Amino acid sequence: MTLNVNEIRKDFPILERTTASGSRIVYLDSTATSQKPVQVIEAMNEYYRRSNANIHRGVHTLAEEATAMYEGARERIAKFINAAAPREIIYTRNTTESINLVAYSWARANLKAGDLVILTEMEHHSNLVPWHMLQAERGIELEFIPVTEDGLLDLDAYKALLTRTPKLVSFTHMSNVLGTVNPAGEIIRLAHAAGALTLVDGAQSVPHLQVDVQALDADFYAFSAHKMCGPTGIGALYGRTALLESMPPFLGGGDMIKEVKLRSFRANSLPHKFEAGTPAIAEAIGFGAAVDYLTAVGMEKIAAHEHAITEYALDRLEEIPGVKLFGPPADKKGGVAAFTLEGVHPHDVAQILDQDGIAVRAGHHCAQPLHEKFGIPATSRASFYLYSTKEEVDLLVTGLYKVKEMFG
Amino acid sequence: MDDLYREVIIEHYKNPSYRGKLDPHDISFADNNPLCGDHIQIDLQVDANGVVADARFDGHGCAISQASADLLMETIIGKPLQEVKHLNKQDVLDMLGIDLGPVRLKCALLSLKVLKAGVYGLGEASDSLVE
Hints:
By secondary structure, chain A is an alpha/beta fold. Helix content of chain A is 40%, strand content 16%. The relative contact order of chain A is 0.16.
């Protein structure tokens, strides 16, 4: 059973629109943020139109409805990644905040000067900077699993690093530039054998692959709604119950407490302990609707569709003289094609493609160290999702020939 | 939109007249555009009367940033430093002869920021220098 992309596209009203010059939008920037189906937009609208109230404390009809919708979304999100219980899903603003939660709460309670945290050379800035900050504050040590020329993690180098008894291994499940899908299960198994905990940046993997946090045996797993058909402003941190229970609260305030006295407080139980203040309620409901949408389409079908598009795109792009692709071949990566075009800066590539409504990203994609590793300041990046088509890849290729002509 | 890549811009990007370094120089400064990693270095030779005797830029970046750097060098050679200090955003847009959105404006203004930070002897090429 393959995915019917024409039916899927009907769910995304934005794909119908045109630019000022009359070109239809060709959206090839889903790695930055995905488009949203009507089902998600309507779920949030419906909440504001019918059920808007603050959650948890109220006893009136609206407050009960809002609470049920907010917590119901959490249950479905937990199920989506196969968490053992809804309390293991902490709502955050996004993947970045999820990683920061671990860095502020778990790491500051457990790491001291000299303790080693292992990261990788392909990390997004969101999984680098929180650790740089902790390094400056605590004097922890950082080491990086190298990336090979093919865009894969060097697992032999990783095994060598593990002999130095790290406390934490924090890595991306799928690179937002190279598209590399890392062997998360193996990385986690090796980390555990060395006595380290693991934190997985799942911003790119959860939207595109069937993720099972229990099968992976992940300790922490971070992801964002907006890259998986949901709204911005909401994300999640998965953590094992025992681990989350052992951690001090992150932000203090309303809803995260059981009891407050003038000079003291007792923290609430999970997951509320980590959710201070009125949260993004409509967004959480939208997150739940996004999970429902992806589940209804089927994650396996989505992954197969993206794989077919990516394989086609890599083949077509490779045909273009002067195009250099980065990252592994299609069977080891998700729906991302980062490339350079000889003699033309990626910004100019993106700008000229935009003339025909083609949206790609140009820059270092919040992975500056990775670009330095490959000796380039920037790349252009086309990325694909369940609504992407081969016709859109063809338009990209035509657009790139136009760029070449202009810079001839 | 096609205006953005006017012949003159592509021409200055592909065949710049003032790309390179000056040794010796009286003023040299370099900085990046954090958005895209564009890098510009500008070297100046200034004569006894405080007039720019020669100027060169070096670095890498998009057509807009490199073409505007080349045009900027052409403009300032022969001008007193006092006058260079007063160049602003509009002057660069006039040189390029195009209108730019907020993102690409940063590309176009990088060279002027670097130039003014160098002339004023500042540590950083900040946005406030060109507004």
